[in-house]
Amino acid sequence: MLTLFLCFSLETQAKNPTNETELDEAEITRRLHAMENRVVKPRYDPVVMSYLKTYLVRGREGTEQMLGRRFIYFPLFEDVLFQNDLPEELKALSIVESALHNRAISRVGAMGLWQFMAPTARSLGLQVDANIDERRDTRRSTEAAATYLKSLYKQFSDWELAIAAYNSGSGRVIRALKRGRGSNYWAIRGDLPRETANYVPAFIAASYLLENFEKHGLTPKFPAEELLLTTSILVHQDLSFDQVQKLTGVSLETIDFLNPAYNRKSIPASTRGYYLTLPSKVMEKVRVYLEANRPDGASKPELITSINAPKVRELPATIMVEERHEVSAGETLAELASIYGCTTDKIMEWNKLETAEVAPGQFLKIFRPKGRELKFRIERMEAFSLIPMLQLDPIQPTEPEITTMAKDAAAHESFQYYVTTRPESIFEITDRFPGTTLQDILKINDLSSNRIIRAGTRLKIRKL
Fold first, then answer.
1. Residue limits of the LysM domain (predicted)?
2. Catalytic residue status for 61
């Protein structure tokens, strides 16, 4: 809710009362127009500038803290959005809604990172009662937000209208469209409630901030390391925060911060299961403990339940292995994230990097799930371009057999070209073209299977 943004603004101004300096609006406008965003078309607007002044001038300290919190939440947001085939840029919506405070609550009762009202949350399958409020469960509320956003986009076929409806509800957007002033957000903006009329500009400002905060001298304030490298498991047994604290040594404050959905500081038994999130370094202790005390073989009566709970299901990446990677010339964090199966933000948080810039010879700490071995040696490969297909004049052979040149032309026509848009392995590329084989792609392009193909590389693929 934008009300939360106002509170964020007042709070940060009180903590950091700076004299407002003039922003270079011409340069900001240029950057806005240069941004590529699949959700909105960034544009200059007085409301956009108002939000940017709060982020970049009046509330700099709060902004730096918020940018640090993104390392806790954005990797999960990105994963859920990807799994739902939604634009990654939608993660900026959480900044508009809650400034990444997991216990945020609005004046009308919307709650959590994605600011759901209780009826909406229940309609999306979230539990909201005296014991548990899954609007504050990071994983389940994010999954619910993805479901809701997908349904809104299906309804409006326009992301700006969809996120406006996320704020005000579909009904208000539909009524504004029926007034006939236009079919897009900017045309009907004057017919929307004031908060919704400011909502897309707020989203544009948040998106600008994520892409350009370094240019304005902002430095993210990193949270404690134990809040950054975390793991979640699905628990079906009774488990109190006190028990978790005694078992792991993690403070009750940290357990509570990572698990804000449990109003009574305890996870109840259930067949559905509830997520428990903890620092990854202690999760194995919890997993072993719960496994040893399952109802079908319990040795500690205090954890026995009457429910025939299934085995605790461990989410991917429960046990992490640390790798030490030396950066090669031209290597980027995006490429490393693709190789190791993580995100750029995660690599930045693990290494306390303030920017995504890395230098050759720099060593990086990278974590990967135990058992997930790299299938190929990491090597650099320069982008190359194949010789384009010859433009041949029609040939009328005098002999019945086809001439050599005609055969070459036919051979060219039996191939297609694929240009990589991100670093990919040969294995991934082979999967994109059913029927083709790994050996065929390697032979045609003179490649070895243990290489990563850089973004922008043009590959020759046989047509089937």
1. 323-366, 416-461
2. no
